[in-house]
């Protein structure tokens, strides 16, 4: 298994140089032989249980269809990249890739900005019942799922089966602002007062002072938001009937049904859909993985998440 | 209530409201309203076809669910519960085991953690395709291995006895990396002095785990059990891709999706199923929070 690419290793050396909060953790690795056994066991788990299904899938993509039929579980013989170009053409993945990018980047950016504008006044307590409002926002996530009324509403408002409509829906419904509220509380209020005294306007203040202060939180949210939007399958299924508007996930779902049993082709299509996310993951894996471990995904960036803190914000995440 | 320092005397009262106007309206329109409207639509026979009336019918969907169609709804509830309990228990166990194994310093372990975390960044469409291939009864590798080992063949995702356990396993495969990371964060919060004290008292590794590590991981267990249970309760996209809800894998969520968008467009009936799912969420989520929190305090 050769999943770790040069990029992955390089970012990893970056961690090695940095602080390692767990380095002092009592790990019983005093005996070298035992440490090697543990390492091999962990490698086997990661490689066989978690990486192998992906690698196996990728291998199928390099087979010809007849090669696959003759030896479905063996190595590709002969090797070919034809499936990739065939899948790209027949699945219309080029157009869908652009759609997916649009559906992921635009709502991600807009929810990010709107989220800060929503979170800031609530976090600063500018309203009479800011805390109650905040609690209500969070608990509204536990209300019944609204997919069916959202579909009816989208049709009434002519947002159904349109790219602009889909963008409006996803840009405005995206929650995640409560992710920011706690973070903004950590930014001292004195900055607000000083900026206001100097005549800084509200919008300019948010963009030039608050948002740069929130970089780690915004980055984490942007990455997870992008991945979430890219991967969404249900909303495109419900809201977009026209194949020209589909994102790659929706396209793959149909492609999968259309070419059942032509596994080299499906494998190539699957890999095409997964590749951008895989690339993002390899580039940012340190941020994503150690970020979650350190509680960054819970909006507690930089704070060694106290157990209760993780529990509390963690529940918020679930809403 | 704090005063907003921005703007002039006249504008400062309105600036906070202007700031939340667009995202707040969006949330009301596309977040809160659809959620609440589900309650209303669950009392109708609305088909969603343009020009058709709402067909308010009181509790008709609920009575249908509990009488004539009870076997379908009952099955869906049963499948949902099995799915939630199975995935939560297995994922918590797998995540804990992986965390204990992989919470070690060193570059190789960081790579292993990243690989184990990786599956959940993929779309369910991707994961579904991968495991449809792995479990393909004609040309999949799992069939070959099972056949070689036991000389038996199985339809796997097409078998009514195996489909549900297998989709649970795929779910665990996809998300146990997340549970692992939550547990690793928990492990790193345990002060080394506690272990030193336990070692001083001559506690063996098993006793240390049972009486030190596991109790001190209680907050992490609360988070992961609650999040996994809530997540699997609402999950149906993966099931849809893997089995289409056939072979005993139709959860309430999938049943809701299929009755509303699967061609019949029974939007009212689907809303009722969404309400049933909501009741399950409240009961299970509330019960879990109550017991997990009490456990945390008593430990």
Automatic annotation (TrEMBL), chain A:
It is a multi-pass membrane protein. Keywords: Cell membrane, Membrane, Transmembrane, Transmembrane helix, Transport. It is found in: Cell membrane. It comes from the Bacteria. CDD domains: TM_PBP2. Residues 97-284 form the ABC transmembrane type-1 domain. GO terms for cellular component: plasma membrane. InterPro entries: MetI-like, MetI-like_sf. Pfam families: BPD_transp_1 (PF00528). The chain crosses the membrane at residues 40-59, 101-120, 132-152, 164-184, 265-284. The keyword Phosphoprotein does not apply. One of its GO terms (biological process) is transmembrane transport. The keyword Zinc-finger does not apply. Belongs to the binding-protein-dependent transport system permease family. This is ABC transmembrane type-1 domain-containing protein. It comes from Streptomyces scopuliridis RB72.
Automatic annotation (TrEMBL), chain B:
Pfam families: BPD_transp_1. The keyword Repeat does not apply. The chain crosses the membrane at residues 20-43, 81-102, 114-135, 214-247, 267-292. SUPFAM superfamilies: MetI-like. It comes from the Bacteria. InterPro entries: MetI-like, MetI-like_sf, UgpAE/MalFG_permease. Residues 77-290 form the ABC transmembrane type-1 domain. Belongs to the binding-protein-dependent transport system permease family. This is ABC transmembrane type-1 domain-containing protein. It comes from Streptomyces scopuliridis RB72.
